[in-house]
Design goal:
The protein has about 700 residues and is α+β, with helices and mostly antiparallel strands. The strands form 8 sheets. Strands 18-17-23-14-15-22-19-20 form an 8-stranded antiparallel β-sheet. Strands 2-3-1-4-5-11-6 form a 7-stranded mixed β-sheet, sandwiched between helices. Strands 25, 26, 27, 28 and 29 form a 5-stranded antiparallel β-sheet that branches. The protein starts with 5 loop residues before the first strand and ends with a helix.
Amino acid sequence: MDLAKLRNIGIAAHIDAGKTTTTERVLFYAKKIHRMGEVDSGSATMDWMAQERERGITITSAATTVGWKDCRINIIDTPGHVDFTIEVERALKVLDGAVVIFCAVGGVEPQSETVWHQADRYHISRIAFINKMDRVGADFERVIDMMSSRLPQFPVPVQIPWGAEQGFVGVIDLVGWRAIRWKDETLGAEFVIGDIPVELIPQAKRWRQHLVDKASEAEDTIIEDYMAGQKSESATLRRALRKLTLENKIVPVLCGSALKNKGVQPLLDAVLDYLPSPLDVPSVKGHDPEDEEKIVVREPSPDVPFSALVFKLTYSQHMGPLAFTRVYSGKLERGQTIRGFPGGKRSRATKLLLVHSNHFEEVPKLEAGEIGLIAGLRHVTTGSTLADQKHPIVYELMRFPEPVIHQSIEPHTQADEAKLGKSLAILELEDPTFKVRSDPETGQLLVSGMGELHLEIIVDRLQREFRVPVRTGKPQVSYRETVTQKVEHSTTFSRLIGQKTHYAGVTLRLEPYNKGKDIKIHLPQELPREFLDAIRQSLNDSFSAGSMLGYPITNVRVTVTGVDYREDEASEVAFKAAAAQAFTEAYQKASPALLEPIMDVEVITPEEYMGDVLADISTRRGKIEEVESIKEHKLINGFVPLAASFGYATALRSLTQGRASFAMHFSHYALLPEAERRKLFDYLTFTP
């Protein structure tokens, strides 16, 4: 396989921007499918889950492969709803490029920004597609302005729309300096290329100059052509734009209407023209499993040792766990034994598969640059590194957000307890943001997730796919605990266990920290590795539950500044116990407090309902950040505590007669106000 002709891309967007509809057209024009499905009718190819087809939203990322011209494009279609952000995160981890879709009316919406910043973290090159140019209120230039003000990369339109709303018929190609008009009678499969309409030439010249100015930063010949009064060749402009895109300095912007079958073929061309192949991205780096300081580099070639990353697990009743995998180097053949890290345990790849939505094609091997499924692997999780037995490597671990909401769950009958436990274990394996635990005081089984919809889908899957009837309690907020003061504390542990005295002392400092949790060990003397690991593991475990209400601890830094031990009495047990005790005692002295999750909310409402919407947000302890006008609508941005957001969808429908829409995603944790803290304590300690 020629890696220069391969693209691994994701398609991502805010919910309802038309992402799955665009993907459906891509499949149709690339001749992967012979009939276009629609989201509204529940027939979209990539939305294969029953819940996706009923709700008209993407819940789980789906993969496929298409051919375009002489290239191959691996595509991952990701969810747009914030509750399923993890699906976007783990897809972006293994992709080289992305198409981010914006609605021509809504513009840069909250989930669009979230996806954008996720892509920034992984240095992923992007192109943008402004969709729904046929809708009432579509405004191409307004979306470009929003991209310029809200996103770090410079948007460079390579097309402008030909018409808008009901008058949208095609696009003006600024690079090729031509007009493209689609034929409605062929479902957009055919289009006519011609001269730019006279009335659009001034606008096209203005935007082309914008493009040329930016492209000249990468190609000196473009400046020379301009100074000589000549037009640069299309190939020269594309080469310059590609270079700037791969450097993440610009984002080429295209436009169209996927629903009306306009603009999709040039989008596929742009994927080839501007997005990277596996050869264009830096070689991946990992470390030796025996020495984290030893960096190991793997080139994207089938002729070097095999390495890959598992970015998603799913469960098949017929094949067991299936690992979605990006192969970074070497090749994997069916039946080959490999190692999985962390842990280094061996597994045999019993089957290798290429995937199209929920259909599989068995293949004899997977090579560098490819994305596929591996059956037969044991002891791997999302984020595991797979490696050749003789050439181990560990790639950077994936990090997942902690759940912000939980509820109790139980089977209808005692006979289904074991079945429920097994089913929840499978769902937890598939989704790193879904957690299952047992309440130590009540014995209740608790499930946690990223939002109401997330847990609703989990319960629906339990009852449909796993056939386990369940009852659930009301959703509850997953609060966090923290400290508000800096404290230093020392503790000594000494105990006779068996015939030996175990002794160790630990001195540590606890202080507020605004970036989650941080564990540091700064010691004046050397300490054996096994004792350092014991201290670190004990402190890490201590963050799992605070002493106020047992919620996880966050926004705290702990620094170990001293230890005390005797050579003949030191042990891992003693250091673990001393560290845990020192942490607990210091925590109680450091004025612990509760934190609540705060949601970023965006509401688009007709102007006549704005007062009611603002008043409702205020009653929910919300804070308004900005109100923006969009023709006859108002765009309201603000923050609302998660605890006050339950039932908001129903309330908003009632307030606006169903004419408003909203999006909400987790933003940050904030101190719980004293009045709310008292209410929470009263609620949790109330016994009827």
